[in-house]
Every structure is written in C-alpha cells, then in structure tokens.
Write a structure and sequence with these properties.
Two copies of one chain form a homodimer.
Chain A (H helix, E strand, L loop, with lengths): L4 E5 L4 H12 L3 E6 L18 E5 L5 H9 L9 E4 L6 H6 L1 H22 L3 E7 L10 E2 L11 H19 L3 E7 L1 E3 L7 H11 L3 E4 L6 E2 L1 E3 H14 L4 E5 L7 E2 H12 L4 E4 L14 E2 L2 H6 L7 H15 L4
Parallel strand pairs in A: 1-2, 1-4, 2-3, 4-5, 5-7, 6-15, 7-12, 8-11, 9-14
Antiparallel strand pairs in A: 10-13
Chain lengths: 324, 324
Amino acid sequence: MSVDGHIIAGGAGFIAQTLIRRLLLAGDSVLVIDNLSRGQEVFLKDFINSDRFDFKVADCSDESAVEVAIKSVRSPETFNRIWHLAANSDIPAGIANPGIDLKDTFLTTFALLKLAKARNIANFHFASSSAIYGDLGDRAVDEDIGPLRPISNYGAMKLASEAQIRAAVESFLPRADIFRFPNVIGVPATHGVIVDFVRKLKSTPDQLVVLGNGTQRKPYLHADDLVDAMIFIANTARDPFNVFNIGPRDQGVTVQFIAEAVRDRVAPHCEIVYGEGDRGWVGDVPRFKYSTDRIAALGWTPRLGSREAVVRAVDEVARQEGFG
Amino acid sequence: MSVDGHIIAGGAGFIAQTLIRRLLLAGDSVLVIDNLSRGQEVFLKDFINSDRFDFKVADCSDESAVEVAIKSVRSPETFNRIWHLAANSDIPAGIANPGIDLKDTFLTTFALLKLAKARNIANFHFASSSAIYGDLGDRAVDEDIGPLRPISNYGAMKLASEAQIRAAVESFLPRADIFRFPNVIGVPATHGVIVDFVRKLKSTPDQLVVLGNGTQRKPYLHADDLVDAMIFIANTARDPFNVFNIGPRDQGVTVQFIAEAVRDRVAPHCEIVYGEGDRGWVGDVPRFKYSTDRIAALGWTPRLGSREAVVRAVDEVARQEGFG
C-alpha cells in the first residue's frame, strides 16, 4: 500500500495507534480525525513530528467538520483510503443511552460514506465487530451465518453500519472491507476486562471481584495481530465487498483464565471472588465459537493464540498501569 | 386484541389504511402519527369521525414531537402497542439522498423505541422488508438466512432498524414482531409498478414502456392479506422477538405478467415496449425466492397468490386512477 493516503477516523484510539505506526513505516501519509471523546491525543505522540502525519480534532459524525479538517491539510486530494475506527466502545454506556451508539458508531459511518462519495475515495475499511452476531449458542460463527441478532446497541449500530456500507458498494463505492473484530487486547488499553482487573487490583490489592461466574469463554486477539490482518485484507482481498472475521484460531479463554493471569502478574496473593451467572452485563455474550476459516483461506493466521495474547497483554497493561 | 390502544406511526400511508380499519372494527383505539411527507390525510377520511380514532401530524423521527402528539389525546396512558409503518418508500430517492432513508426509515425506529421505553409500551410491531436480504440468487430466503447484504439504503435502514429493535428486546422491550414485507399491492396506491404502469397509460395510451426486459420475477401480496398476517402474528406468536417473512406461497410473477394485466384492464390495444437487463433500477433485486414456511407453520396462509393479487390490485388501481 505504498504512496497511499489514509484518513483514520477515530484515529486517537487504542487500535489506531498500531495501525498508524504500520502505515507510516510503509511510507504512507496519515490523517487522523478524532473528537477525543474516548481517544487521547497522547496516543499520537510518537507520530506528531512526522511530516506524513496530521491530526485534526473533529467529530466524525459531522460531515462538514470532517471536510474542514481534510481541507486544512497540505494535500487533501491524495487520500484514497478511509479507515473507520470511530465508535462508542463502552457497551454498557450505549445500553443506558442508545443515542451514544447512534451518533458515535452509526452516524460516523453515515457521514464518512458521504465523504467517500463526495471526494471519490475508493476504499473504505470498516472496524465491525463480532457483536453483530448476537448469541448464537454453540454454532460456529462464520461470516455468512444467520440470523444476525445483536443484543447490544453497540452491535446493532455496527450491523447498521455494515448494511449502509453494503448499499454504498452497490451504488457508488468501489471497494469496502468489513473487519469483524473479536475482543482485542493490548496497549494503550483504555477499557476491557484486563485493564478493569488491573485497575481493581491497583485500588484493592487483596481481592479481585469478578462479574459473573468466570466461565464465560471468548476468543482474544492481540492488537498487533489484528492490525496485521486488516492490512493483509486491504492488500489481498479482491472483491468489491469483503467481510472477514478476524480472530485467533482457538476457541478462546475463560474470564477465570484472565483473572488468574492478572493475579499472577500483579498481585499473586490476592483472592479472586466470582459472582453468579454466565453474563457479565446486559449485552454481553457468554460464549462464542468464532470461525476464522475465511481469512485463513486468504493466507493469514495470527502469531498469538488467545492464551498467549492474554498473557502478553496482561504484562503490557500491568506496565502501563505502573506495575513495573 | 380487544381493548388495545394502538399508536400507528406512518399511519397515513397505504398499508396503514387497511390496518386501521381492522383495528377499529375490533373495537380498539387508534392514534395515527404521520408527518404527511408521503402519507395523505385523505386516506384517513373513513375513520376521522370515530371517537376511538385520533390523527396527529408529527414527524416520527422527532421523539418530543411524538410525545406532544400522544399527550394531546384523551387517554394517552392506554396505548400498549406501537405499529411502526413510517418509512421512505421511494427507494431510488433514498439512493440519490441517503439522508432520506436515514431520517424516515431508521431514525423513526430509534425515536419510537425511546418512546416505548419512556412510556412502558410493551409491544412493538415493525414493518420490515425483504429488501434486508439483498440479492441471494436462487437460494430460498428464509428468516434465518445469511449473509444479509441489502443493496439499497432503504434495505440497509430496515436492517438497521431490525438490529436496534433486537437490542431493545434484550435490554427493556418485552415484545417485538418483525414483519418482513414482500412487494405489497392494493389501494390506496401511491407508488410501485402497478400504479406506475396505469399512470403511464393514462398519459400515453398507445404504448407502455417498461424498465428492464420484463423477466424480473417477484412475489406480490395484497394489502388485505398482509394486514391479516400482521394481526395474526401479533395475536399468535409467543416469543419476545418474532421475525416472519410475509408473502404468498408461490414464487411470484414477472414484470411482463403485470404489464400485460395492466394493458388488458386499461388499454387493451397498447404496445408494450421492454428495455434491457433484468434490473429496473439501482437497488432493485431481479428475482426472489421467498420462504414463508415459518408463518405457514404458525397457521396462516394468504387468500390470494401473486397472480390473483396482481389481477385484483390492477383492477383496484385502475378504478382509483379513473378507469371506471
């Protein structure tokens, strides 16, 4: 993807940091647009001195604000790819107030598609989620499975975004990739089970209280592997509309495994106290068999399985939170 | 469904007229809310004198306007069902300007779900569409099929609405029905292939120019059958979240069949001139095998097949347009 110009919507977030590093290393130009509602400018500190990097504060659901941001950079006409990573990643917040998911997760998609049309940007790469599937029980979840029954507003607005992108491909957009993310871990960690556990132990080192009974099993992917897969798909897939599950090849690890990994790294003598039930919160899916056969057939496999990814991320997050 | 109170969003439209008639006959109360962007007040003239009927002009995507409308009727606390029929039914208009489908088809769903939550309205009945499926080729389309790849913004925003409703059922809504409509015909006709053909022949009686080559085959259902199915599902289905294809048991009729039925009824000596290709417009699906096994298993079958529905609707539309 050399000599590409990338707009990264939601580019001050966790996953974007790894993506930006890769794209700049490849010699490309990057414009990050982020409203800093959850993203943090400090995540961009390594890039800010690059003359191929720009950062503009704008709300990606506001098409005209995004247009102003684009026009303010040196060569706005060179952008040929939009990476849409903007979303409300706080699922319980979106259940309490669906307007958050509407604006941050769906209306961003809507505005960015209008931008792609207005600027003839041919490639749209979208961070979707396994949350679009809902609770499919013990079925192996491949990309073509039905029915799709998201149980959170977050998942609903990711599915809504996919639908709008699909329709855009039919009418004007030459190329779209849909990346269905699993649980992604790594640093800079801002939310999710690992950072929750580490921070709990930071304030109460003797006890780790876990929501649910710890038997929830989910696949985890490290952000480095995720970004590697995204770039691989962007370079390799050939259809106008490509949908890929991205995840480890295994069936994941339990919450108990994660709790114990955090305990072992951070507070070896703490007691782990489990709750009841196999769901941590409304909108949470207790188990998930994620099929990654399609991306494997395209030629990509992750370097880390769920166990290795968790152990590495626990160490990274512990360092981030001051456990040297 | 006796002693029910119904809010019908988009109630001044084509299908609502038949639904309102049925609900009032059953002794229920009905409040129609419509912004009259496509609905017509004249469609409500038979009901306006009933003391169990109210009509308020408000935009269903504007939650506070809807709330004002509800508060202005005699017993606003008696409503226990929302029928969401509000949508942009003009598919090409939505492809030219996706903002129309966003506001009229999706943001209406969003606002009406907030209303259901705020008012503890337990039943949400949603007019979805076969357009959520996209072009699945020769596969039989049942309710659980995947992948869902809508090719119009209309279909995308119907799918987005379904997703948001599904998430609402997970978090607060006791009951939702998703009705996936096929092509629905009957009167008062405002759009669609039959009224298009009749009006063309009204202005140029010698020639009927057809978009596409006439081989597109789709299932058609008469509005009377559709509304009968909707009420049947509302009374009979028992899950918190019910999804039903509604349609005839056959595989439909071709555009050619419809063109000839209109010719025979309206202008027997006209010439029919076909275009090229099997799609009439961007976002149109050329053929469709619609499975209605689920609703048949629930105990409902339509009175009219596609052929009978078309012949009857052609006669009704011809009368509506002045062909006595």
